[in-house]
Amino acid sequence: MKTLVYLAHPRMDRSEINGPMYKAAAAIEGITCVDLYAEYPTFEIDVDREQARLTSHDAIVFLHPLYWYSVPALVKEWMDLVLEYGFAYGHEGHALDKKVMFNAVSCGATEAAYQPAGANGAHLRDLLAPIEKSADLCRMRFLAPFTIYAAGRAKDEGRDLSHLAAWAGLLRALRDDELDIDAARRALELNDIAATCVAPSEAV
C-alpha cells in the first residue's frame, strides 16, 4: 500500500518520541511523510493539495500526541476542511473508499490509566471514537491505534528503541501488504501486531 504519514505535533521542541518516529518513517523507502504544523503554521490548509495526497495513497496514518483525549487542533482543522462532502463522504463522495487509516499516538499517562477501571475510564481506542466514526463515514478501514504510554519516560526507561523498531516494522508491513488488516481492525491496539513485524536484525 502507498502509505502517507502525517506528523501533527505543535511543540516539536518538547517531543520525546514523535520526532524520532517521524524520522524513522521518513527513512523507509516508499513512505510519504508530511509535517502538518511545519507545512501549515497559520492553519491555512491547501485543500486541493491534501485531497490529491489522499487520493494518491492507500493508507493514511496520523502521528501525534494525545491532546485532551483527542488529536491536536490542526488535525481537526484538516479533517473539517479536507474531508468534504462529495469528496470523502455522501452519495458521490467515494474518494477514500476502503483506504486504511489509523492513529499512532503518544500518551503522557501510563497504560493503566487507559483502562475502563483506570484514571481515564476507557481504552484509548474508545477515546478515539470520533476519529473512528469519521473514518467509517468516509468508508475507510479504521485500524486500532499504535500507542506508546508514559512517552516522556520512554527513553529513560529504555522503551523507545523497541517502539521505534515496531513502528518501522508496522509501516513496512503496511507498505508491502503484509499486515493482517482484519486483525488490525478488531484489535484494541496495534502494538502486539506491530511487534510481530520487527525484523530479527532490528529486535531490541
Kindly provide the radius of gyration, computed on alpha-carbon positions and rounded to a whole number of angstroms: 16 Å
Helix content: 25-40%
The arrangement of helices and strands along the chain is EHEHHEHEHHEEHHH
Helix and strand composition category: alpha/beta
Major beta-sheet overview:
6 strands, parallel
- Mean of residue pLDDT values: 95
Short description:
With 204 residues, this protein is of the alpha/beta class.
Task: Provide a descriptive summary of the structure in words.
The relative contact order is 0.16. Helix 1 (18-26) packs parallel to helix 7 (160-175). The protein has one domain (3-202): Rossmann fold, CATH 3.40.50.360. The longest helix is centred in the C-terminal third of the chain and has 16 residues, at 160-175. It is of the alpha/beta class. The chain has nine helices and six strands; from the N terminus they run βαβααβαβααββααα. Strands 1, 2, 3, 4, 5 and 6 form a six-stranded parallel β-sheet that branches. Helix 1 links the parallel strand 1 and strand 2. The model has no long low-confidence stretch (mean pLDDT 95). 35% of the residues lie in helices and 14% in strands. The protein starts with a strand and ends in a 9-residue tail after the last helix.
What's the helix and strand layout?
Layout: E1 3-7, H1 18-26, E2 31-35, H2 36-39, H3 47-55, E3 59-65, H4 73-82, E4 100-106, H5 124-127, H6 129-137, E5 141-142, E6 146-148, H7 160-175, H8 181-186, H9 191-195
Parallel strand pairs: 1-2, 1-3, 3-4, 4-5, 4-6
Helix pairs in contact: 1-7
